[in-house]
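Subject: sequence -> C-alpha cells, single chain

Hey, anyone have a minute? Need the predicted structure for the following. Not urgent.
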Amino acid sequence: MSRRQRAAAFVSAVAAALCLLSACVSITVPRAGEPVALQPGEAFVFGRIRMLNAKNEHIEYSAFWFDPWDQPFFGPGPRMTLELRQLDPPGGTFDYKAYPAPPVEKHGSFFWILPAGNYLLLGNPRLLGSERFDPGETGTLARFSVPATGGTIYLGTLIISVVFDFGNVVQGWEREEAEYAITGCHVVDEREQAFAPLRARFPAFPEPVATGLMRAE
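Reply:
Had a minute. Here:
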C-alpha cells in the first residue's frame, strides 16, 4: 500500500472513530454568491484564525492551506487540523457532538451555520491523515456560544502564536511534516475589517447581526 493510500485509510479510520465516539455531525457552509439561509435553531457564525510567529508577528503562516509555496519562505510550514465540539446538547445522549476538520479558507476565514449551543474549538499540530497523527495532542484553542435567537454572529479573529524557525523547516523537509509549538492564543475584534469581505461574499445574511467574540483558552 502506498503512502497516500495509507494516509487515506487513516483519515477514514479516524473520521469513523470520531463519528462513533462523539456523534459526528457535519457543518453547513453557505455558498458564496447566495443568500445565507438558516433553519430554526441555527445561527450563522464567521471569523478568522491566524497563525503568527511568536518571535516575529510580522511572519504569518498558512496553517490551513497545504501548499509549500504559499508560506513566508519556500518549504513546509506549520499546519493544523481543527476540531469543533458542541458541548452538552440539550436532550442529547452524548457528552458532546464532534465536527472533525471544520472547513477553513486559505487565509483562515471561516463561515459556518451551527445549531445553538456551547462550542469548543480545538487544534492538533498534526494533519488528519498523517502517520504521526495523535488525538492526544489535540488541545483547546477557544470557546464560544451560539444563541438560540439565531442571526449572524461575528466571533472575532483567533491569533495563535507558534515557535517555528529554520531548524523546523529542515526537519519538515526530512519528515514531510513540520514541527512547531503553540505558545499562546488570544482573540482580537476586527469587526470593521471582517464585514467588508462578508458583504462582498454573501448578498444577504440573517438578522440580527451581533458580536460574540470567542474566548481564548
